[in-house]
Task: structure prediction
Amino acid sequence: MTMHAVTFELIKKDHKTKARRGRVHTPHGSIDTPVFMPVGTAATVKAMRPEEIKDMGAHIILSNTYHLYLRPGHELIKAAGGLHKFMNWDRAILTDSGGFQVFSLGDMRKITEEGVEFRSHIDGSKHMLTPEKAVTIQNALGSDIMMAFDECAPYPADHNYVKNSLERTSRWLKRCKSAHNNTESQSLFGIMQGGMYRDLRCQSAQEIVNLDLPGYAIGGLSVGEPKELMYEVLDYATDYLPENKPRYLMGVGSPDCLFEGVERGIDMFDCVLPTRIARNGTAMTSRGKIAIKNAIHEKDFDTLDPECDCYTCQNYSKAYLRHLYKSNEILSSMLLTNHNLHFLIKLMEKIRYAIETDHFSAFKKEFMEKYYGNLEEVKCL
Result:
């Protein structure tokens, strides 16, 4: 049995669904699952101080290999003592490999068997990112969990394209594993690809699970496909992954997707959604989303959410938050981001408790009715 820096403890399984309660152990502490992980792409969760994120109960955040490689550079971060010290975060960090970012560059990148040649979105300079380089960068960053460099197939894509893509991802994963030289303090997760094709998802899972990695992500979803199709894939995709390893659904963070993912056996989630919509003036509340710029809030001196105990809800009214947003004040982004991240982190705490006490399905129904109202409309959100 291979010894890993990151391990998973399965604590409880729901009696009606595939939902499960667990704990991921890392060199920088343990993370209770299911968990939503705030995204700090460039070594910072936008508009938030690390202390605030800790205070709301987050034990892991994400950063991104592509962005940190381009600016300020992984060697500089290594010289600073690693990413934890550089950004003053002493809890767990997961780094994405940069695969999704370079594949999102469209005409600015070229995929070969060696890797991906691309031009920087910052200054247009030319770079080559290979599986080995993605691992070298992440080794320098010192994240607890490193993601393998993969090819994220677009949606839609035909069967032959996706098959070739996933097989390249499997070959790249072997190269990532061979290049990983810091196994005592960092763990490498593999990524399942296969698009929307069941046979290819099965093939991908078999190929990555054979490498006995400490965790596995499900990639290639939430890339433009209908939510019903994503859920259909998740219905069977988690069955192909080992029960004793954490399962990570990449790039998903809306409340409905969190519930649906947990129900299908997902343990870890991340998404820029809560921070991005906060900067655009939208808050997640127990009664649904609120667009703070709307005129209805101009003289509303109630809090965003009477059921929320975050710093924002304890101290500020909707009228004040609207004033900040309309005035383009930085504090608007700070307060709304604080609220949205607190909302999702506490939601995951409630989901974990619901699994522990065998009422996950009832809690899901109750939450969805309050947040979305007409459940038939959720699929359109």
About this structure: The first strand starts at residue 7 and ends at 13. Confidence is low (pLDDT under 50) at residues 375-381.
